[in-house]
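Protocol step 4 of 6.
Sequence for TPR/glycosyl transferase domain protein (Robiginitalea biformata) entered exactly as in the expression construct, tag removed. Do not edit the line below.
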Amino acid sequence: MKYLRDFGFEPVLYLPETPHYPLTDPDLEREVPENLTVYRSQFWEPYAWARLFGRKKAGRISSGIIQRRNPGLVERLLLWARGNFFIPDARKFWVKKAVRELPGILDQEGITTLVTTGPPHSLHLIGLELSRRRPNLKWVADFRDPWTEIGYHSAMSLGKRARRKHRELETRVLGAADRVMATSQVTADSLGSHTPRPVAVITNGFDRQPARGDQPDGAFVVAHIGSLLSGRNPDALWQALATLLRDTPGFREDFRLELTGLVSEEVMESLREHGLETHTKIHAYVPHREAIIRQEKAQLLLLLEIDSPETRGIVPGKLFEYMAAARPILAIGPDGWEAADRVIGSGCGAGFRYGQMDEILAQLRQWYDLYRKGALSVRPGGVAQYHRRELTGRLAKEILWELSSDNPS
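Step 5 output, structure tokens:
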């Protein structure tokens, strides 16, 4: 959106007036271009109802923190209701009102191309209905995460009816959209099996000048920025760090683990079990500018994903912020994780599976030895392609301009 004007497109936004989000960042709001046309509408959401069962539990679920070890009855009930009644998600109540309001906006602004971005995947249902009513409207369905193959569906105890409904809606969206986008090749391949059209891969990115990559001053800080969910609990990493604390001279004095954002209780239990709690500092959520500073001051950056085949195609936006920070990235995730392949391929760090404790330990030792010598630097290659202006240029050239030339209006 920020760079679309550079490529000849004027964005118009249609947004909820007061959406429920667990976290917001005023820093990112200031990046919105000036004089942008924005339409807002008030939508009903079920989160106030969910908080009747417990504000803390409802807030944790909406933030993505799912307790995987012995979740309580209330939490299981909320997850089951979320998965089986709110299909495809809790924003399903936006659809009818949006479909009533958007035709007038499309006419008033002379809009010929609509882009829906999910999740929430309910937004794609808005595009589906508008494309049915307006055959000349060009529609791009942008998948920032998978739909039916998203990892957390397994925690929601979806019934057969719910699974069938999710698949049916996804197939209808993929069949009707003029173009489909995904943020990873794995997700694109999965979506492509349900549509005859090619699925474009346009990843997330960063929006700043990349750092130099020299070793920063200070302690041997291993940092994770963002929510650390229950499923992203790398026990092998905690074992490796505990081994270094026990066996490596100087490591106990140099090492600090910094976790910025929401941290699940399961992760905290693991840290205590491995004797890492006294070396760990937890920070509340911080604005984007401060998160960048913390990334660049860390010696190592952790990139973690749930160990599941469904998460192989999750390539988080955080990866590209890490790349721009130019600090070594330690990626731990499922076998065949695309994000880890991108880390290794760009020379930004190393990637491992959850059970590779010995390999993780060896890599940490290598990086710590370089740190002691003042030589823990990063010189990545090919990172410029992930700048958001470059990515916007690809979006304009490969999708938007093509649709504009095809559109008779």
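Step 6, annotate. Confidence is low (pLDDT under 50) at residues 57-67.
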